[in-house]
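Progress note, sequence design subtask.
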């Protein structure tokens, strides 16, 4: 048996670090999704990172570029000249962002006993105990949760904290599903509209816990002068272990959730056509919410999926992040990235277009890549001028697209009145 190569060492390091996906030029010893166009490779890596809440990679011109799920574009340079610097470089790039210049032949044998390090470190238990005491003593606490909770894989701990602490959770649209939509502790999704946090009435709480909020998820300075603490998402399991049941009143009331739900849920039985967008997203949740993935582009599809999709679990909805320019072609790219990892997974990409034949250039390029990889990407094309399908007709179109019993794409019109109804509650749309 031939000895393992440096490429195999690199592949094992990426897998151990939870960042196994590489797009772009072929890389010896590493499973790579070949994408000839560097811009398309970057889009696919970014979409993969969002779809799986992990770091992905672009390999281009002898460089490995780390692309994380928050949309950061840090280009801190690292050099890999031997086995030790190869592993250390990819570790640093995963943790802090950056790119690795590969100054070595990955086909060369790896030295015996090559060590693959770990990026994890234990947080201080005293810090967790301090946070636990503050939460237990609070009369009216609340949690603001962001995408970092998904990236840290600490959703179960957050759910345990919500239950033991009897504390409500507001999440960003990039953290949809950290609590099920029907949980009494799910207070709603913020960041999509101008008055979201005003309706949440943060000054009415005596402890605001921020966790997992990444750049762009909490714009401005809405917590100035308020009693807030930041708990790293990686510390949530330790906090859950230390937390004693809180005896104060449960913080389960939410004007934001209740007033928006009144608009959304009153439309679920609508018979008018074109259908309200919340009817479309409810059907997506019914079909894919428990084990599939719905992705959406920024704009009308992204807003309504973010605002009205009844989320059951984390990772069932993927949208472009806050604080960065949303790339064209994102929804189809994220769906394709999931299919590349799990070809049998039910997915649906929701885009704004009259039909799949009239999509933007980036989306068309991703669909071409899907055809090259022999993967079928179901696409829902939303347009105000699209067909006015009934609820039953729309359901049949979705089932056909997702499960392969009909065309892979379909077009549907939607009622624009619901957007105005939601803006009357929470103000203008501010996402993206």
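Output:
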């Amino acid at each position: 048996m031939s000895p393992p190569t440096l490429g195999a060492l690199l592949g094992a390091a990426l897998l151990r670090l939870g960042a196994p996906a590489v797009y772009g030029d072929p890389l010896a010893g590493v499973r790579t999704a070949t994408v000839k166009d560097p811009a398309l490779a970057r889009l696919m890596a970014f979409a993969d990172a969002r779809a799986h809440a992990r770091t992905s990679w672009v390999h281009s011109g002898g460089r490995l570029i780390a692309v994380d799920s928050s949309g950061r574009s840090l280009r801190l340079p690292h050099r890999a000249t031997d086995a030790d610097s190869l592993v250390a470089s990819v570790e640093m790039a995963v943790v802090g962002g950056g790119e690795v210049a590969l100054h070595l032949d990955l086909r060369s044998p790896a030295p015996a006993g090559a060590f693959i390090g770990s990026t994890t470190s234990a947080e201080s238990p005293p810090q967790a105990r301090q946070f636990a005491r503050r939460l237990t003593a609070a009369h009216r606490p609340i949690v603001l949760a962001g995408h970092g909770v998904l990236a840290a894989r600490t959703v179960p701990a957050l759910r345990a904290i919500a239950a033991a602490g009897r504390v409500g959770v507001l999440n960003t649209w990039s953290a949809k599903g950290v609590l099920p939509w029907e949980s009494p502790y799910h207070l709603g999704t913020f960041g999509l509209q101008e008055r979201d946090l005003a309706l949440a009435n943060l000054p009415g709480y005596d402890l605001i816990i921020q966790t997992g909020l990444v750049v762009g998820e909490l714009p401005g300075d809405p917590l100035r002068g308020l009693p807030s603490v930041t708990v790293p998402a990686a510390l949530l399991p330790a906090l859950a272990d230390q937390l004693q049941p809180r005896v104060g009143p449960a913080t389960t009331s939410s004007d934001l959730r209740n007033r928006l739900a009144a608009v959304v849920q009153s439309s679920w039985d609508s018979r008018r056509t074109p259908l309200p967008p919340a009817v479309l997203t409810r059907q997506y949740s019914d079909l894919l919410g428990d084990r599939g993935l719905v992705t959406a582009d920024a704009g009308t599809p992204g807003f309504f999926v973010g605002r009205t999709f009844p989320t059951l679990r984390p990772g069932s909805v993927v949208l472009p992040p806050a604080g960065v320019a949303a790339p064209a072609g994102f929804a189809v790219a994220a769906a394709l990235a999931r299919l590349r990892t799990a070809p049998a997974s039910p997915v649906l990409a929701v885009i704004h277009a009259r039909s799949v034949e009239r999509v933007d250039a980036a989306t068309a390029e991703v669909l071409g890549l899907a055809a090259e990889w022999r993967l079928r990407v179901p696409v829902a094309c939303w347009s105000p001028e699209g067909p006015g399908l009934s609820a039953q007709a729309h359901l049949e179109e979705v089932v056909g697209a997702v499960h392969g019993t009909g065309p892979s794409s379909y077009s549907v019109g939607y009622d624009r009145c619901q957007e105005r109804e939601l803006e009357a509650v929470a103000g203008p749309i501010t996402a993206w």
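The chain has three domains: 6-102, 125-254, 267-426. Work on this subtask will continue into the next period as scheduled.
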